[in-house]
Design goal:
Elements: E1 4-13, H1 17-28, E2 33-37, H2 63-76, E3 80-83, E4 88-90, E5 96-99, E6 103-112, E7 116-118, E8 135-136, H3 139-142, E9 150-154, H4 158-167, E10 173-177, H5 189-197, E11 201-204, E12 207-213, E13 220-225, E14 231-235, E15 238-241, E16 245-247, E17 277-279, H6 291-319, E18 326-331, H7 336-351, E19 357-362, H8 368-372, E20 380-385, E21 388-393, H9 399-406
Parallel strand pairs: 1-2, 1-6, 2-3, 6-17, 8-15, 9-10, 9-15, 10-11, 18-19
Antiparallel strand pairs: 4-5, 5-6, 7-16, 12-13, 13-14, 18-20, 20-21
Bound molecules: flavin-adenine dinucleotide.
Length: 407
């Protein structure tokens, strides 16, 4: 099958809070923007029943409600959406390739916002009961189906305990398997005391899952006591796993820098190790993985992509033109030494109109263009001929030096 080829300014991989926010910023900057999502626009947050800590919603909102608003706003700014899985990428160079089953997307910038997926326990039988056979990762999705039943929650972090509390509204009993000693949990103190006081919640301490069993559907979770090694079979109708997430970064292996756990490493501008490729949200190695921080990341990545594209265009269409020699004055508007040199540059510009193209690049706003020229400090002058930098003057910037360089 011959694949279609389409061109965009920006391709965003992942339609969660981070990707949608990046989309809003890129769309609003009038960039031709495509967002590719493999399952559900809104991402992980749509699986959450109640989001109480996202600012602006004092009465809380369901994750789905919140994400629907993000989606609506991105569509308002003409972001295009494709529901498909990104299979591979080629990110080096000016034109980046993002490939799906049917289409090859050529793009100037890529924003990776693929988030993470739930971690499995690795216990025996697990693969046989995933999703509709009894092992779930989404209380919002599967709570109602467990009305009047007994369910297990594995984990004791914020997500486990808060979703476990939500499950008590439906299930008769919520059994929580906790790795730690009695009374020790990974969640915040408020959630912990509410959970411990909830009569529908029962805790089994110092345990991990050893095996999942059942005839076609999950019927029993066999827990193992970490201190005694004793096995404890527990009859359940469903089991909810909340033991963390692993990043969706397989397709970026050996392409983008990542930490030992596979989270992408960026700087504070959300830039990855490849120019024009940004990462945002839970897919990043970061301190706090929440909707509010995903939104912040997405905004920075969207803004960064816009700046990167604008700089690329200035660089190629103005600076690297080969019709006449060029002089790029790299300066910093807040540096008096740079400001003092401006009259020399402007005099030179006035005297050489039509012969030398003079461009001023203020690195206070962005160092991107200067860096492309191989310049990392200001003041500095880069001389350009035949579309190439042929001399960089940094120590003695004066008219004589410039004239000598041009000749
Ligand atoms: C149970 C639970 C409760 C939570 N409660 C809260 C809360 O109360 N408050 C709060 O602020 N946060 C909460 N969070 C965290 C919050 O949901 C995440 O921090 C947030 O969703 C991260 O957004 P994201 O856009 O980075 O990633 P995600 O929301 O994970 O979105 C990434 C998207 O990328 C898609 N994707 C991945 N790979 C590809 C690919 N190759 N091709 C195409 N698409 C791809 C995925 O399908 C996914 O939709 C909770 C999380 C969970 C699991």
């Amino acid at each position: 099958m011959k694949k279609k080829v389409e061109q965009y300014d920006v391709v965003i991989i992942g339609g969660g809070a981070a990707g949608l926010t990046a989309g809003i910023y890129c769309g609003r900057a009038r960039l031709k923007t495509l967002l590719i999502e493999k399952s559900l626009v809104g991402g992980l947050a749509t699986y959450t029943n109640e989001i109480e800590n996202y600012p602006g919603f004092p009465d809380g909102a369901t994750g789905l409600e919140l994400m629907n608003l993000f989606h609506k706003q991105a569509k308002k700014f003409d972001v295009r959406f494709k529901l498909t899985d990104v299979k591979s990428v080629r990110l080096e160079g000016e034109t980046k390739i993002v490939e799906t089953f049917r289409t090859i997307y050529e793009t100037k910038a890529v924003i990776v916002a693929g988030g993470g997926k739930p971690r499995l326990t690795g216990a025996k039988g697990e693969e046989d009961y995933l999703y509709d056979k009894g092992i779930s990762f989404c209380a919002t999705c599967d709570a109602a189906a467990n009305t009047g039943k007994t369910v297990m929650v594995v984990g004791s972090g914020d997500a486990a305990i808060e979703e476990g509390m939500f499950l008590t509204k439906f299930a008769d009993k919520v059994i929580v398997s906790v790795l730690h000693d009695e009374g020790r949990m990974d969640c915040n103190e408020i959630a912990k005391s509410e959970a411990l006081a909830n009569p529908k919640m029962e805790f089994i301490w110092n345990t991990v899952v050893d095996e999942f069993t059942g005839e076609g559907r999950l019927e029993e979770v066999i827990l193992r006591n970490l201190k005694t090694d004793a096995l404890l079979p527990v009859k359940v109708d469903a089991c909810f796993l909340f033991i963390g997430y692993i990043p969706n970064t397989e397709i970026f292996k050996d392409i983008l820098n990542m930490n030992n756990s596979g989270y992408l490493i960026t700087n504070e501008k959300m830039e990855t190790n490849i120019e024009g490729v940004f990462a945002a949200g839970d897919v990043r190695d970061k301190f706090l993985k929440q909707v509010a921080t995903a939104v912040g990341d997405g905004a920075i990545a969207g803004y960064g992509a816009e700046k990167y594209i604008a700089e690329s265009e200035t660089f190629h269409n103005q600076i690297m033109q080969d019709d006449m020699p060029g002089l790029v004055f790299v300066w910093n508007a807040v540096d008096p030494k740079c400001r003092d040199l401006m009259p020399i540059i402007e005099k030179y510009e006035a005297e050489n109109q039509g012969k030398v193209r003079v461009i001023k690049v203020d690195i206070y706003k962005s160092a991107g263009i200067a860096n492309r020229l191989g310049v990392f400090e200001a003041p500095c002058v880069a001389m350009i001929k035949d579309g190439k930098v042929f001399k960089i003057i940094k120590d003695r910037i004066c008219e004589d030096e410039i004239i000598a360089a041009i000749e």
